[in-house]
Amino acid sequence: MGCWQSSLSAETHQEKDQKIHNQQPIQRNSPFSGGEAAVPAIGVPPFSKFSFLDLKAATKNFSSEFIVSESGEKAPNLVYKGQLQDSRWIAVKKFSKVAWPDPKQFAEEAKGVGKLRFRRLANLIGYCCDGDERLLVAEYMPNDTLAMHLFHWENQTIEWAMRLRVAFYIAEALDYCRNEGLSLYHDLNAYRVLFDQDGDPRLSCFGLMRNSRDGKSYSTNLAYTPPEYLRNGRVTPESVIFSFGTILLDLLSGKHIPPNHALDMIRTKNILLLIDSHLEGKFSMDEATIVVDIASKCLQYEPKDRPTAKDLVATLLPLQTGVDVPSYVMLGISKHVDAPPTPQRPLSPLGEACSRKDLTAIHQILVMTHYRDDEGTNELSFQEWTQQMRDMLEARKRGDFAFRDKDFKTAIDCYSQFIDVGTMVSPTVFARRSLCNLLCDQPDAALRDAMQAQCVYPDWPTAFYMQSVALAKLDMHQDAVDMLNEGAGLEEKRQKSGRRS
């Protein structure tokens, strides 16, 4: 087992930056691209096939308590939330057994949708085709649907700037899907718009697949169905734009208004009657007029008269304000943070202290352990016992006194003198300096020291445990658990071989 990373400083910062990029709100990275190349989703797992047993376990045997479909247990295709063994949450859509009789057709369609990876989508990450079972697996969005926030809110309605952000993000999602050759979206409505852990709106990937083998595409009230679908029963890219227009009406009014009724209000210039009274006048009339105009164009009777998804993105882009305000703040919700995943192996006292990030307990254990694990890591000849060597050991001794007395800044200086000479390497010194850096709020330096300890002593559990604490401090929780498990596995090997831990 070699070093976890070879280029310690550069790769540590790079990986940290990538993790932070995954967790912070999307808008901090110039979200309003205005038609530039789509920014891909980061950190989305590759598309894969799941076993039915795994999904059954993840959803607690498809418990009714795990149903997240808005229409509840009577829906033909239920959606459940589930939690995999690695603690990752997923959304699982379960089709009826007769919906997709041909497993090959189902798998091919799922794989087509599974190729998409975009930050405005709740991306499809897998499927299940065991026997008669037909299930889709997607990223789980923990902050409800647009319908819930617009029509069933308890604390506050959605503010105007956030409504414009929803419209823009969903237009971006539709434009991305069109560019990727999947321009048909079935039954687009406010229940298909989901909010992720940062409160950012995303379009459910489930609507990119047909609902069943007969190609049925709309299950909502006929008053909201595109007129051409009523004529020939087929969904077209222009039908999707019509449905987007109904979402704009929802955002404008805070109610689910039939398009014909809304168009009558628009034609008679009663725009103010269309605007949600719960906004209490806190909106721009100029912006509202533009959105009303977009909605009316989307709802044109003739499909050829409707704008494209690209047109929608271009028109909605200039309306975006509050770019630096996270979506969860605009929604008035707390940012959703999953509990860190738990280790798979039993942990030693040091491992337990590291999993709790209990720096005081870690300090006590390292003081008690002293240098017993350094035996055999250095072989020095008589010639190397020079004055420089004595000075180096004296520096380490001063560092040990400072470490014991909790003078961690002095300990860092003394241990650095010892390390910089380079005549003697000590994994314990790296572990101790790693802890000192953690206690001085320097997790980057702590991680580098713990990784150096692993380089000196590749099978040393303490090196992995210290890495786990530093990674947790850097909000890299899955990596932290991986390091805990590595350390615990090495301790198991030691116990089996009769070595002291």
Automatic annotation (TrEMBL):
Residues 65-320 form the Protein kinase domain. Keywords: ATP-binding, Brassinosteroid signaling pathway, Cell membrane, Kinase, Lipoprotein, Membrane, Myristate, Nucleotide-binding, Serine/threonine-protein kinase, Transferase. The keyword Iron does not apply. It is found in: Cell membrane. Its EC number is 2.7.11.1. Residues 1-34 are annotated as: Disordered. GO terms for biological process: brassinosteroid mediated signaling pathway. Residues 1-11, 21-32 have a biased composition (Polar residues). Pfam families: PK_Tyr_Ser-Thr, TPR_BSK1_C. GO terms for molecular function: ATP binding; protein serine/threonine kinase activity. InterPro entries: BSK, Kinase-like_dom_sf, Prot_kinase_dom, Ser-Thr/Tyr_kinase_cat_dom, TPR-like_helical_dom_sf, TPR_BSK1_C. It is a lipid-anchor. It catalyses: L-threonyl-[protein] + ATP = O-phospho-L-threonyl-[protein] + ADP + H(+); L-seryl-[protein] + ATP = O-phospho-L-seryl-[protein] + ADP + H(+). PROSITE patterns: PROTEIN_KINASE_DOM (PS50011). GO terms for cellular component: plasma membrane. Belongs to the protein kinase superfamily. Ser/Thr protein kinase family. This is non-specific serine/threonine protein kinase.
